[in-house]
């Protein structure tokens, strides 16, 4: 990746051979990459970075509905918002803790299943067989579908009286189970989430498999290694860097998932399936207490940063040892 | 690679189950879209009692689907066009220049992808409302606000994918253009962009998909006039009395173009999406 223009800053060293009249252009060339980045930078600042800073500021304010119109006048709150939500004896703190627990369980189950299914399908589709191409395209359809269309279809399938799921289970009449309220709603959420995310895992693992040199397998086969041994000694270690990124991305997406529960359950998600994003959304827009909502968001961000940093530290070290 | 027989059986079993799991919702959507209303108001039926295309016509009057459609098209189209244009410029800078801050920029932009949307939803909402109050430029409740927001959602990935794509285009090509006397921007427009068309198309599809399917910000930032398909359909589907056959017809209408586009361009998109993860 040597750039054709990065000779420009180094040019003075060979300046004596260059005609002097080209000098003025050098200033423009130094500025050019920044000019090219400017639109992207301004928009990222406007929509992501400034709001994030404002969010941190908001979490230290008593920003209730009375101050929405004139938010700069919202009084200081110090750490009050944080104190309220981390007081697990109060209703606010208890609900937050519960929602956090639900989200952790949901994330572990959903990411684990999506990763397992995606890897199994990709590995089993590694060798050629009839119908492989069309099947691969078919598996990618859930990933390509607009997410709300897919989840709305699931909401229809999970209806108690008219849905496919109860039809499939042969359950009808007064004792048919509900899938969108009560304890079952958690499992509905997990299944819908896995349905939406496993094709992505499949896609990434498939791409990772394509990068494993064929001759590795041929050499192993010559040495008499069977299918399972080849899988354990070639496929698995060669996929490790791909899996490192894949699991992190799946974790962040799933942990922050707002869309799936929101479309599946509407404005009021059942308590058993109240993921952290939904919980923050509801506590912010139902009570219009933006200060408290922001404090929860900041805490969520800190948690995610901590987990990501720890994950990267552990997996990178393991990679180094294995390498 | 020679496989033992059990691998063949495991393949049939696992892929069969996965095909069923993937296919059932798709079947529910397609079959229910052609059912008469009576079929979706009692116990689940696998086969429609009669096949009717009425739901495809009726949904346009049950909810203002036409308006939602127009809003979604305008917002997603504008966000895609802007996102691709801005990403091309930024990706060219990252791919062809070495300058202080290059790495910091790449990492910062990419890491914004990782943050929970809920984190900047509240402040962004307040900022948009207050910009509107202060300057009269309506961002909250307008399509413009949504376009700006969606644009930044696809931008990091778009820059990343395109920078990777540009890296694969030989530098000799732009050097030839530079020798011919065009400036770096001319080289970008005349040489790099045409050579990167497949990558640019993939990025456009990705941006469009992102904007077309977004729910969280659309639910907060739009009013009844600027509702997008995502929020409009979601709202209707959680009402008490829902004509499910019509909802399934609408879901099919909004899905088919996207899925078809994705499958047609799958190869490019997959290459772009996975380039970073595999490197």
From TrEMBL, chain A:
Q: Which domain of life is it from?
A: Bacteria
ABC transmembrane type-1 domain location, by residue? 100-311
Would you tell me the Gene Ontology cellular component terms? plasma membrane
Q: Check the record and name the InterPro entries matching this protein.
A: ABC_transporter_permease, MetI-like, MetI-like_sf
Name of protein = ABC transporter permease
Please give the biological process terms from Gene Ontology that the record holds. transmembrane transport
Principal place of residence: membrane
List the membrane topology term(s): Multi-pass membrane protein
The protein's UniProt keywords, in alphabetical order, are:
Cell membrane, Membrane, Transmembrane, Transmembrane helix, Transport
| PANTHER family the UniProt entry points to | ABC TRANSPORTER PERMEASE PROTEIN, INNER MEMBRANE ABC TRANSPORTER PERMEASE PROTEIN YCJO
Could you tell me where this protein is found in the cell? Cell membrane
Q: Which Pfam families match?
A: BPD_transp_1 (PF00528)
* TM region(s), chain numbering: 31-60, 100-125, 137-158, 178-205, 238-255, 290-314
**Residue span of region Disordered:** 1-24
Its family remark reads: Belongs to the binding-protein-dependent transport system permease family.
- Extract the SUPFAM superfamilies matched here: MetI-like
TrEMBL record, chain B:
| Keywords on record | Cell membrane, Membrane, Transmembrane, Transmembrane helix, Transport
Q: Which Pfam families match?
A: BPD_transp_1 (PF00528)
Q: Does the keyword Cell inner membrane apply?
A: no
- Subcellular location(s) of the protein: Cell membrane
Q: Which residues form the ABC transmembrane type-1 domain?
A: 69-265
Residues spanning the membrane: 68-92, 104-132, 144-166, 187-209, 243-265
Query: Which membrane topology describes this protein?
Result: Multi-pass membrane protein
Membrane among keywords: yes
**GO cellular component terms attached to this protein's record:** plasma membrane
InterPro entries attached to this UniProt entry: BP-dep_ABC_trans_perm (IPR050901), MetI-like (IPR000515), MetI-like_sf (IPR035906)
Gene Ontology annotations of biological process type? transmembrane transport
Indicate the family of this protein.
Answer: Belongs to the binding-protein-dependent transport system permease family.
Name of the featured protein = ABC transporter permease
């Amino acid at each position: 990746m040597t750039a054709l223009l990065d000779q420009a800053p180094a040019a003075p060293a060979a300046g004596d051979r260059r005609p002097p009249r080209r000098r003025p252009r050098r200033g423009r060339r130094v500025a050019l990459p920044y000019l090219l980045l400017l639109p992207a930078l301004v928009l990222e600042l406007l929509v992501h970075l400034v709001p994030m800073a404002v969010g941190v500021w908001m979490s230290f304010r008593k920003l209730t509905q009375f101050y929405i119109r004139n938010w700069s006048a919202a009084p200081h709150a110090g750490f009050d918002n944080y104190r309220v939500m981390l007081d697990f004896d109060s209703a606010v703190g208890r609900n937050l803790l519960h929602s956090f627990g639900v989200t952790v369980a949901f994330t572990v189950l959903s990411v684990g299943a999506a990763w397992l299914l995606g890897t199994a399908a990709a590995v089993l589709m590694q060798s050629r067989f009839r119908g492989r191409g069309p099947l691969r395209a078919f598996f990618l359809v859930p990933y390509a579908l607009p997410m709300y269309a897919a989840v709305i279809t699931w909401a229809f399938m999970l209806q108690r009286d008219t849905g496919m799921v109860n039809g499939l289970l042969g359950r009808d009449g007064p004792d048919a189970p509900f899938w969108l309220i009560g304890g079952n709603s958690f499992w509905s959420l997990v299944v819908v989430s896995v349905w939406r995310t496993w094709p992505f895992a499949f896609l990434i693992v498939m791409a990772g498999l394509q990068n494993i040199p064929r001759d590795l397998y041929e050499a192993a086969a010559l040495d008499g290694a069977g299918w399972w041994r080849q899988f354990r000694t070639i496929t698995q270690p060669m996929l490790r860097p791909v899996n490192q990124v894949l699991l992190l991305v799946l974790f962040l997406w799933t942990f922050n998932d707002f869309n799936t529960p929101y479309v599946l359950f509407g404005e009021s998600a059942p308590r058993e399936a109240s993921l952290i994003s939904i919980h923050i959304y509801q506590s912010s827009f139902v009570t219009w207490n933006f200060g408290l909502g922001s404090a929860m968001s900041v805490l969520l961000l800190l948690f995610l940063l901590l987990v990501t940093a720890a994950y990267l530290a552990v997996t990178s070290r393991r990679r180094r040892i294995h390498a | 690679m020679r496989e033992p027989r059990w691998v063949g059986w495991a393949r049939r079993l696992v892929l069969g189950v996965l095909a069923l799991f993937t296919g059932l919702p798709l079947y529910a959507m397609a079959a229910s879209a052609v059912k008469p209303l009576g079929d979706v108001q009692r116990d689940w039926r696998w086969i429609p009692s009669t096949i009717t295309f009425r739901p495809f016509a009726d949904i346009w009057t049950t909810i203002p689907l036409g308006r939602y459609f127009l809003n979604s098209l305008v917002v997603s189209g504008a966000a895609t066009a802007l996102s691709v244009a801005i990403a091309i410029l930024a990706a060219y800078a990252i791919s062809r220049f070495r300058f202080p801050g290059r790495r910091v920029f790449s990492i910062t932009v990419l890491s914004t992808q990782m943050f929970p949307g809920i984190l900047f939803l509240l402040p962004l909402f307040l900022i948009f409302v207050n910009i509107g109050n202060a300057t009269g430029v309506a961002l909250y409740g307008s399509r413009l606000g949504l376009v700006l927001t969606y644009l930044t959602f696809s931008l990091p990935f778009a820059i990343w994918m395109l920078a990777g794509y540009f890296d694969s285009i030989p530098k000799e090509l732009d050097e030839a253009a530079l020798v011919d006397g065009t400036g770096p921007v001319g080289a970008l427009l005349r040489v790099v962009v045409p050579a990167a068309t497949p990558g640019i198309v993939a990025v456009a599809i990705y941006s469009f998909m992102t904007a077309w399917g977004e729910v969280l910000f659309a639910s907060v930032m739009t009013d009844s006039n600027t509702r997008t398909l995502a929020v409009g359909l979601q709202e209707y589907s959680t009402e008490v009395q829902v004509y499910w056959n019509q909802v399934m017809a609408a879901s099919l209408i909004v899905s088919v173009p996207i899925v078809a586009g994705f499958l047609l361009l799958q190869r490019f998109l997959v290459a772009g999406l996975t380039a970073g993860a595999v490197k």
